[in-house]
Amino acid sequence: MDGLCAGDEKEFSYEKNDEKGPARWGELTEEWKTCSSGSMQSPIDLPINQRVQLASSTEGLNRNYSASDAILKNTGHDIELEWEAGAGTIEINGTEYTLKQLHWHSPSEHTINGRRFALEMHMVHESKDGKIAVIAFLYTIGRPDFFLSHLTDHIRKVAGSEGKETMVGTVDPEDFKIQNIMYYYRYMGSLTTPPCHESVVWTVLKKVRTVSIQQVSLLQEAVDGEPGWNARPTQQTNGRPIHLYVSEDNGHH
Q1: Pairing relationship of beta strands 243-247 and 52-54 according to DSSP bridges
Q2: Of 50, 148, 154, 250, which one's alpha carbon is 20 to 30 angstroms from that of 169?
Q3: Would residue 58 count as lying in a domain?
Q4: What are phi and psi of 22, to 5 degrees?
Q5: Do the Cβ atoms of 70 and 1 come closer than 8 Å?
Q6: Is residue 211 in some structural domain?
Q7: For residue 155, what are the CA distances in angstroms to 217, 218, 230?
Q8: pLDDT tens figures, 161-178
Q9: Phi/psi of residue 223, nearest 5 degrees
Q10: Is 182 inside a domain boundary?
Q11: pLDDT (tens digit, 9 = 90+) per residue, 184-226?
């Protein structure tokens, strides 16, 4: 996935006071300067008192996903599930985006009314001209997540080994059960890892899901063999519009 992750994953860190930590990402290379200078960075805090708007068909999540073969890989800063041939599409504002990969951040990167959650999953989509759309799921500690339960053995196989990959077989994005009627936040932001490119369409689902402590620990420890977090701090909103939509269509067209 060119452009979605940095070439050398250890070129940056999530440690707050580290010389390669989030506050310094924009100084590490010329290509990453947007991480510091950008005015539309992600993640952000999402306000709870947002007025709910009914999503039109263009603002909706018009999904046409399909099951496809996937591999699980340890990128050195997250665990990523990649569909080698893509896994169908979503359409937002007339642009079609192909589902390429998903990965996890712990704790969550986005916050709601200042509250940070245990885990966040990003479904990353890319259009033919390289534009990015991400659907984000938030998780709090509770019952195990069904999807992660199926991946446990695969995650163990790539644990602690940067660059390691394992075949997962067929994975159907519809298994995530993006509900028929759902609330979601929509705003324009950026990648949350260097190079922090902007003009990413963010969709953050308001309904918080559950994940077990063991599942969060497994993901954290799998990345580099020790418990650690891989979440970028929230960024300034800078007056960007944040919309909270309720979708009434069934998502399929």
Answers
A1: parallel
A2: 250
A3: yes
A4: -55, -35
A5: no
A6: yes
A7: 11, 8, 16
A8: 999 999 999 999 988 877
A9: -65, -55
A10: yes
A11: 999 999 999 999 999 999 999 999 999 999 999 999 999 976 6
Between CA 63 and CA 80 the distance in angstroms is: 21
- Answering whether pTM is above 0.70, one says yes
Q: The domain containing residue 215 runs over which residues? A: 39-247
Would residue 243 show up in a list of annotated catalytic residues for this protein? no
Q: Looking at residue 252, what DSSP letter applies?
A: B
In a domain, 123, yes or no: yes
Rounded-to-integer distance, Cα 103 and Cα 9, Å: 14
Q: Scanning the structure block, which residue is given the tokens 């642009």? A: 95
Half-sphere CA count of 34, side-chain side, radius 13 A: 15
Candidate list 77, 110, 122, 125, residue with the active-site label: 77
CATH number of the domain that residue 184 is part of: 3.10.200.10
* Overall number of domains in the chain: 1
Tokens of 240: 């960007």
pLDDT in tens, 96-113: 999 999 999 999 999 999
